[in-house]
Amino acid sequence: MSKFLLLRTTKGMSLLFAKKTSIKNQPPFSPPLSLLYIASSLESEGHQVDLIDVSFEENPEGKIRTLLSTIDTVIINVYPGNLEESKSLADFIHSNQPDIPIIIHGLYCTIHREHTLQDIPSADICIEDNGEHIITEVAKAIDGKKMFSEIPGISYRENNQIKTMKKPTEIKELDELSFPARHLVKKYEYGTMNGIRLCRPRFTSIMTSRGCPFRCRFCTTHVVSDPFSQRSSENILHEFREIQDDYNSVMIVDENFLADAQHAHSIMNGLIQAGSTLDLFIAGARVDSANRELYRKMAQAGVKLISFGIESGNQDVLDYYHKQITLSQIRKAIDLAREMKIITWGNFIFGAPIETKQHLRKTMKFSLSLPLDMAFYRQLSYQRGSSLWAEAVKNGMIEEKTSFCYAGSGKTFTNFTDEELSEYCRWAFKRFYYRPTYLLKEVSRCVSRKDFTILKSLRSVI
User: Fold this and answer.
1) For residue 245, how far is the Cα from the chain centroid?
2) Which of 89, 138, 268, 321 could form an S-S bond across to 301 if both were Cys, CB 3.0 to 4.6 Å?
3) Is residue 15 predicted with pLDDT exceeding 60?
4) Same-domain pairing of 242 and 154
């Protein structure tokens, strides 16, 4: 059996080995769930696994260099935002131990499966995201027990050529997956943002479904996970029971946790019956899922925060994005969550091609009218794989090789420049958080909930 070293690096890493700096990096908020699933698959086959979350390490260069003499294969996570950091990490490993196979894995490998190995020339093998079944086959190939050409979902180098295999079969029965190997990251303390703890320690995350049954035009979820699939509530509750022994706070990282109301009811019923004491944070929810009985159960089961994709305060913009929600549904969901004393986080996007200044002002006014605890404003982005990106490529606005760009940059069609949209986002943040009435209401809400998380977190915003 082999020994694998899994490395998680993040966008903006300052310790890039070739360019040392004294700048301290902010560690990521949540653990690398995709790598932990990969680790679990390898361990189930008898392989040894170690994992380094590079941002947490004081001297990652020294630690990695020391471990390289004891391991057989390295796996590095790659997503669209950390390409340069992953490339530097792969170059460092190759320069120190050129005979160690380097595997890259993640969302970037799915979106750019044809040329990821060109972008990271020090890597030997590329595995698409959700590759729990693929990695065990790759391990066999590295050991000479299987041919790389027999493995779907990978690219690899052979005789100075890059060969790309057919797309893998989507994992439909998610219950088949072993639970993430959380023991590998117990040495790290997650759950802080900008140095502020937003939840009770110890913090981890959980996946209950993959994909989303909806097709918002700016989203790329369907590129990685299609069709939408869910784990059984029994399997999920089993994992929650294991988590309960070692953790206090859990983020549900699904793109759309409330897509299936009956499934959500079943999970919440199980948590309530088990007397769960976990604090739950829902990272992705649609507003059209608002139901009084479900929200009541969520509050009773320990849900402390819900993040909603609101996007706009204009119905025509929501329709343009194919959100399939209404302004009244947005207001209902926020009001209902507030009634249940659940912290609400609203996400907004500026820069749709049809938007004018009047649209932007209306979205700002709408966000201020909602009883949100927190709001996040960002520019529209064109990401490879989304329908907006495909349309922009077809119309000659974006080159096909471009994987990510903001509205307003280059030739992307919008009524605003990149600088104007960026400035408008900053202005929106100030408008929302600098209101005296907002601060007074938040103090009142925190007292009512007996939870002062939001007041602490506002230190990083105001």
Assistant:
1) 25
2) 268
3) no
4) no
Helix (H) or strand (E) holding 346: strand 343-350
**Amino acid at position 329, single letter:** Q
Do 233 and 321 lie in one domain? The reply is: yes
User: Are residues 378 and 254 located together in one domain of the fold?
Assistant: yes
Instruction: Specify the pLDDT at position 452.
Output: 67
Of 164, 197, 217, the one marking the end of a domain is 164
Tell whether the torsion through CA atoms of 81, 132, 153 and 283 is positive or negative. negative
Q: Is residue 338 part of a domain?
A: yes
Which positions ≥6 away from 124 have C-beta within 8 Å?
101, 102, 103, 117, 156, 157
**How far is residue 142's CA from residue 75's CA, in Å, rounded to a whole number?**
13
Map tokens 């986002």 to a residue. 425
What's the CATH code of the domain at 208? 3.80.30.20
| Whole-model pTM over 0.85 | yes
Q: Does residue 336 surpass a pLDDT of 80?
A: yes
Domain enclosing residue 133, as ranges: 3-164
When pLDDT is averaged across residues 230-246 and rounded to a whole number, the result is 96
Burial of 161 (0-12, 13-18, 19+ CB in 10 A): exposed
Structure tokens at 451: 């939870």
Same domain, 298 and 406: yes
Both tokens assigned to 460: 């990083």
Question: Does the residue 325 lie in any domain?
Answer: yes
Q: What is the pLDDT of residue 43?
A: 97
Burial 66-80 (b: 16+ CB within 10 A, else e): eeeeebbbbbbbbbb
Q: pLDDT tens-digit profile of 400-425?
A: 878 788 898 766 778 899 999 999 99
Average pLDDT over residues 157-176: 88
